[in-house]
Amino acid sequence: MTRPVMNGAAAVVEASFTRYRRTWRASVFSSFLNPILLLLAMGMGLGSLIELGPGGLPYLTWLAPGLLAGIAMQTAVGESSYPIMSALRWTKTFEAALATPIGIPDLVEGHLLWVLFRTTQVTAVFAIVMTGFGVGRPVANAGAVVPAVATGLAFAGAVTAYTANLRSENGLPALFRFGVVPLLLFSGTYFPVADLPAGLRPIAYLSPLFHGAELARTVSLGIASTFPPAVHATVLLGVGALGVWAAGRVLSRRLAR
Amino acid sequence: MRATISGAARVFERNLVSYRRGWVVLFSGFFEPVFYLFSIGVGVGALVGDVHLAGGAPVSYRAFVAPALLASSAMNGAINEAFNILPRLKYDKLYTTMLATPIRPVDVAIGEIAWSVARGGIYAVGFVAVMATLGLVDSWLALATVPAALLVGFAFAAAGIAGVSFMRSWQDYELLQLVILPLFLFSATFYPLDVYPPLLQQITRISPLYHGVELMRGFALGSLDPTMIGHAAILGAVGAAGTYVAVRRLHRLLLF
Q: Which residue, among A105, A255, A75, A74, has the nearest Cα to A165 in the 3D structure?
């Protein structure tokens, strides 16, 4: 009897890398271009209208770490939506994988490793660009990549579960329009949650991106976060773990025969 | 090549019927500019205060940014719809089927452009209603932003369909985003043009969205200006050129 040369999750993540070999150039290009455009337009352009940003910081400085966490969320949601829909429904690569010794926990674990890779890549580039814009110190910005990646991972499982539960791909544009866009705009990324009407603030506190943005800002700029850092970190880890559990359950149901 | 009214109308009708099942997707496009208005306009606007426009009274930031979001949403609606012709053209072979009827490629082009303009128009009416509710419009003149949104939609629908006709596959969607994002961010959308150094100001004038934003802002803030005729003319010219290319391309792709 031959033993598998690697474990299941590693095989799943290898498949993602094999696909990525064909598209990585465009993806690396846009991972540089996006932060440059965003920081130029919103940080410098819009920021030039703002005399004093939140916390007395220049608006560009205050904005950048929040967008760092935001881009991690966007990347993780992107990787956990259409590619998962494709693997389940269109190309059926998940079914193909299950015909091998790979099990559903391997699919989930492999997907998380892949999201870990992609969010690390995108946020590392963002941290470099943001340092180039004169925000934070290089070492602190490198440190802020950690909470940003954790923000991405907090969404990976839940969005995978959501996608796997959909009956048609029409639910995916809705995820971006009613999920990603409002989260990006109202999670204390572009303006402080404290400036929201009091009744809406508790809703913003539910957003994992709020907690990620707060942590990224604390690490990158050394300013105090709204709640103690341990609280923000616990929320991210808790939401992430819950999502992974849900993803495993939904995938088991969808792929069971 | 002349489009027949009934041919183009049939193409339009086909889209209307097909969206009966996907109206949620259609409807959801309305919310995006509204979210931006509350976040950037109201939220960030509290940090900005008033914006001083050249030769005008100061306006609140939310009143400044709202017409720009209206123009952007007309662009986005038109471009998203234009991108939808790719599967119809390449994968579903929808237009090939239509050619078995009296419908000609030119009818397809005109019908699709008209549909995109209509989709953008629906969003415009909804957004102007939101602006009025928030007290962001000064006079009845603001109603002119609706036809202006149709003009912006026409320019981007025609140019979008012309552009999409050159695409090879889904992957080229990235290229489309590569054009749309800078247009959205740098067309004097979120801050006045005079923030830029003179050279960048000139470059911005290349963006059709910039002309749409300026046109909308004039109507919404009730400050009419002769340059608005120029902005409208440029949008019309972009639309006409796009229509010309779109008609020729569809003719080539479908009949040869």
A: A255
Is the CB of A191 less than 8 angstroms away from the CB of B25?
Answer: no
Which range scores top for mean pLDDT: A50-54, A70-74, B74-78? Answer: A70-74
| Mean predicted confidence (pLDDT) in B12-34 | 83
Q: What is the pLDDT of residue B171?
A: 72
Which position has the token pair 């994968």?
A: B91
Phi, psi of A60 (to 5 degrees): -55, -45
**What's the gap in Å between the CA of A182 and the closest CA on chain B?**
6
Cross-chain Cβ contact B185/A38 below 8 Å: yes
pLDDT for residue B174 is more than 80: no
> In 10 A of CB B15, how many CB atoms?
19
Query: Which is it for strands B59-60 and B50-51: parallel, antiparallel or unpaired?
Result: antiparallel
* Mean predicted confidence (pLDDT) in A109-137: 96
The answer to whether A46 and B190 are in contact (CB under 8 A) is: yes
Whether B46 contacts chain A with CB within 8 A: yes
Residue recorded with tokens 């999201």: A115
User: Could you tell me which of B100, B127, B102, B87 has the C-alpha nearest to residue B216?
Assistant: B127
Strand residues in chain A grouped as ranges (E): none
A62 close to A225: Cβ distance less than 8 angstroms:
no
Q: Which amino acid is at B209?
A: L
